Amino acid sequence: MVSKPIIPSNVTKARAFLNAYGRERQLSDAEQNALPLLARGAALRFLLTRLVDFLNVPPGALVRPKDPIEYVRKLRFQQGVASMRDYGVATSGLVA
């Protein structure tokens, strides 16, 4: 199996989201520090949900389960994020 490189495909979206949010309300230091851990938790939750759905397809199901590997990649990326700077956002909420 050929491993795909870990590409931060959502960094642009994350940067846009965090910058827009920061224009409405600045994140506290505690919120900024917690963001990488919360993002890892979200990626893990989606990975596990997709994995359970993928492994437990009922006979005759009309819905096709989504590939859980997408979230393996996202979780790997999130595991390498140490701060908001890794999303391209300075702690001030402006683009780094």
Description:
Helices cover 54% and strands 0% of the residues. The longest helix is centred in the middle third of the chain and has 27 residues, at 29-55. The protein has one domain (11-57, 64-87). It has helices spanning 11-24, 29-55, 69-79. Residues 1-7 have low confidence and may be disordered. The chain has 96 residues and is mostly helical. The chain contains 3 helices and no strands.
What order do the helices and strands come in, and which of them pair?
Elements: H1 11-24, H2 29-55, H3 69-79
Helix pairs in contact: 2-3
Q: How many domain regions?
A: 1
Q: How would a crystallographer describe the biggest sheet?
A: none
Q: How much of the sequence is in beta strands?
A: under 5%
Number of helices: 3
Strand/helix succession:
HHH
Number of strands: 0
Unreliable sequence segments: 1-7
Structural class: mainly alpha
What radius of gyration results from the CA coordinates? Answer: 16 Å
Return the average pLDDT rounded to an integer.
83
The coarse overall form would be elongated
Terminal-residue CA separation? 37 Å
- What is the helical fraction, as a range of percent? 40-55%
Outline of the structure:
The protein is mostly helical. It has helices spanning 11-24, 29-55, 69-79. The chain has one domain.
From the structure above, extract its key features.
mainly alpha, 3 helices, elongated, disordered N terminus
